[in-house]
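Researcher: Quick test of sequence recovery. Tokens follow.
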């Protein structure tokens, strides 16, 4: 068993090195192109300059002031949208009556750009935090719901039959068979939903906020503070990366069998 773990670690190491090296090479290429005057310094400042501004904003507390409020908005909106979406998605996927009731509503409302609903939410909830959180929640809700429904409906019938043959009925069948079999699709929806939540919060903070990473990007563009604008863009990228890695770690904890299948390929 120890040898197997070692082999897995040795197999994963080259891919981890590639994942680390590729963004570093991109940043070095960017830096070199700027210093070679192939990229305009005014609009594409080198990463070293952006890093210096990043450190300055971090030390002054300005960056954390914007980052903290954006994080709270995204996490609150993500939880508000994802939890009911998972619950409703599992029920819609399993009960055909519920699917027949709600699926036309979802199909009709899903294509509407969620950021386009921001003016409506501003009318309903005003300029406070509720507007931004609800906008994120709606965007997250549809992606998680659709992924969850598809995950349940694509469960192999043999799994259901096997569970029932071992006495799984009702809630026990739901908990032991349906939910675990749907987890891969649910996590796909969560990952898409969290990424979309980051996109939506930036758009919402452009319009209806005086704090947040989106506001930092907008006000920096308005005042031609390009370096600060890039700091905001980098922060959004880092949040996307960290959120993806966090969900991946949670997925591995909840679905160790999926990790084993991935490694065997």
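Model:
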């Amino acid at each position: 068993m120890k040898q197997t773990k070692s082999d897995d670690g040795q197999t994963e190491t080259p891919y981890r090195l590639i994942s680390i090296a590729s963004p570093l090479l991109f940043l070095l290429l960017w830096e070199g192109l700027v210093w070679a005057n192939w990229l305009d310094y005014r609009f594409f400042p080198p990463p070293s300059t952006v890093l210096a501004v990043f450190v300055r904003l971090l030390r002054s507390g300005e960056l954390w002031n914007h980052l903290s409020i954006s994080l709270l908005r995204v996490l609150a909106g993500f939880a508000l949208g994802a939890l009911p979406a998972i619950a409703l998605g599992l029920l819609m996927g399993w009960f055909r009556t519920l699917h027949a009731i709600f699926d036309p509503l979802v199909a009709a409302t899903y294509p509407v750009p969620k950021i386009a609903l921001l003016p409506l939410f501003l009318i309903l909830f005003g300029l406070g935090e509720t507007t931004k959180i609800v906008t994120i929640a709606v965007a997250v809700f549809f992606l998680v719901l659709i992924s969850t429904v598809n995950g349940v409906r694509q469960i192999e019938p043999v799994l259901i039959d096997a569970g029932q043959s071992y006495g799984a009925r009702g809630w026990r069948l739901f908990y032991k068979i349906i939910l675990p079999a749907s987890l891969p699709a649910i996590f796909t929806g969560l990952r898409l939903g969290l990424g979309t939540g980051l996109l939506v919060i930036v758009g919402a903070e452009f319009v209806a906020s005086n704090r947040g990473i989106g506001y930092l990007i907008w006000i920096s563009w308005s005042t031609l503070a390009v370096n600060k604008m890039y700091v905001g863009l980098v922060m959004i990228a880092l949040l996307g990366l960290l959120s993806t890695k966090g969900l991946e770690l949670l997925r591995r904890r909840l679905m160790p069998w999926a990790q084993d299948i991935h490694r065997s390929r």
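Residues 61-263 form a domain with the MetI-like fold fold (CATH 1.10.3720.10).
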